[in-house]
Amino acid sequence: MSGDQSRVAVGRQPVVLEDLTEWQQEIVRLRYAHVQEAETGFRSGDPWRAVPGEPRQGFDPRSTTVAQRRAAKVAELAALGADEAAAIGFTRVSVRTLQRYAVACRRLGMLGCVDGHWLRASAGHLVGDEPVHEAIFAVRAETLHRSRVSMATRHRLVAQYLRERFGTEVAVPSYWTLRRVWLEWFGPGGTRQRYARSGVGELPSGGHVVVHRPGQVVALDTTVLPVKVREQVFGDAVSAHLTLALDVYTHAIVGFRLTLVSDTSVDVAMMLRDVMTPKPLREGWGPELAWAYPGVPAAVVEQLAGYPVAGVPFLTPETITVDHGSVYKNHHLVQAQRVLGVNVLPARVLRPTDKHAVERTFAGIQSLLFELLPGWQGIDVADRGADPTGDATLTLTEMEHLVATWIVKIWQQRVLGEYAPAWDPGGVHSPNSLFAAASGQGGLAVQVPPPELYYPLLPCSHVKIHGRRGVKIRGLWYDGPALDDYRDQVSARGGRHRGRWAVHYDRRDARWVFFQDPNDHGWHRLAWVGMPADGQLPAFGDACREQLLRTVKQAGLTPRSDAELLPVLLDLLAEAAPVDRWATQDSKQARRRQAREATQAAAAQADRPKPAEADAPPAPVVPLRRVERLTQAQDAIDAERRRRREQAVPNRPTPPPRLGDAFRRHSLLRLPDDDEPEPAS
């Protein structure tokens, strides 16, 4: 291109200096200065714009010719170091090179020093008839159905389709043309074939979701906290779990939670409520961390929330992207998303692009914060410190406060390098600036959920109200004054739970359940009947509740019905006839494994020398059914035990006398038998 810049290809606009990067533009300026100094004696190419010290010795146009100046420039560039010369592309410059650049600069100016590979033409689109397009899409559909094939096979299939459908009149595109078009239309296709088929079934070819406003997609994920923390009961170092909610458009962390155990459906539901709730100013946070987004004054938000609000976005999500963990696949979460009016959408299997933003956020928090804290465990066991458990100093509450402060002070104000919006790809943005810009463009719908939203988000149980004992939830009885007007009454509820009352419970604290009065729709707390005065019993969850019921059952304090005795019966059946011995439990893998063993045994028997097996009995055929295989194995064990007993005792031993024979033989009261001779007198 440097020697032939005047000819512009048809359909392509002329090249301009702004097509280059800043680094490439600086190289072009240096090259142009060297070429102009060799041609005119001045680096600018104009004696009227000479800089101090020009012309230099050896480049004065009054005493040197163009040929002499070019030779001097070649010698000067050769004297440069290899790195300096390579930086401007003049490692092996010659007089001919300077002459070629000079001719190009006279035609194109500074663009004459541009390398051709910097501004090569883009791939463009395939220029062909409709039959070629039809053949490409037909081969695309066929190769998705088949096993994975190479690009050369796709090219042959396209040629076959064109030949059989349209004859030899249609020209077949070359391999390289098809490859370029295939990559442009369908992507590189580096995924596995089964996942490529599933991806095409969910999204059109080349289709993707464009996130263009806050709250459109919120990614939710949980990971093990890579820093050991100390629990506040005994002070032991434990591992916690960090759950993040990330707005995909602004990359703002709109919610997080730290739990000592893996998150449950209740934690996920409460996380979604946190995303929609304004975050309060914590202790030690100054006014610089308060709400300052345009569109809604801070006084309005504080009036709606009832407390000073921190500068962290809160929004109503439309779609929640989650992984395939069991915590996101249960009836309780379905109930929670119906209450909140959001759509929980699981990410596609092995599709990191569906949830890559929150994964990158975990990595960013790890490198920016967690690696600096004592108790850091590393990302691998081999890279772990000598004693991260002993190094842990932060409690769970202190870690939670530290993460919240870091989010407000650092993450929300940090520059997002590669996540610029589509309307300003070259701009400098942070999560706060993106949220402020979106609020200024489309406005901000301030919807603060009421505190009573906590109750509908809890799991629900439909029960009857006992006249004296109250309600029974998950094996425990709860009672309170709120049930007095509805004892032994039938609820007006219809449908699936007709006649029953809805009671909500929290798995994390089994001391209380919550009942909504149907008259005033107020929420009332029902206490566990076995609990003493309020505040005297520590909180206990599902684990303690199950252990309590198990202890009561083991002590025999409650009568056992057939339903309660069923686990005991199943344990007895497991000892007598386990499921593995059922004849119908032969899986395909088990049958295949047994058939492989039988075939290998037959091959080994055929490979053995014939004389060695002349006197040996033929090997039995291995049955393929599990019950027959187990019977044969048991018979073989019994035969081996019998053989060992016979080898240890070759002759049958005399059976011992029966018990009492000696007593009867010497007893004076024993009557003699009829055929027994009388003793001699």
Structure description:
The chain is α+β, with helices and mostly antiparallel strands and 681 residues long. It has four domains: 17-119, no CATH class; 130-202; 217-442, Nucleotidyltransferase, domain 5; 458-554, no CATH class. It contains 20 helices and 13 strands. It is extended and about 160 Å long. Residues 1-11, 202-207, 561-566 and 611-627 have low confidence and may be disordered.
Indicate the topology:
Blueprint: H1 22-40, H2 66-79, H3 82-87, H4 95-108, H5 130-145, H6 151-166, H7 175-186, H8 193-202, E1 217-224, E2 229-230, E3 237-238, E4 241-247, E5 253-259, H9 265-276, H10 298-305, E6 319-322, H11 331-340, E7 343-346, H12 356-368, H13 388-391, H14 396-409, H15 431-442, E8 460-463, E9 471-473, E10 476-479, E11 501-506, E12 509-516, E13 523-528, H16 542-554, H17 562-576, H18 588-607, H19 626-648, H20 661-666
Parallel strand pairs: 1-6, 6-7
Antiparallel strand pairs: 1-4, 2-3, 4-5, 8-11, 9-10, 10-13, 11-12, 12-13
Helix pairs in contact: 1-2, 1-4, 5-6, 9-11
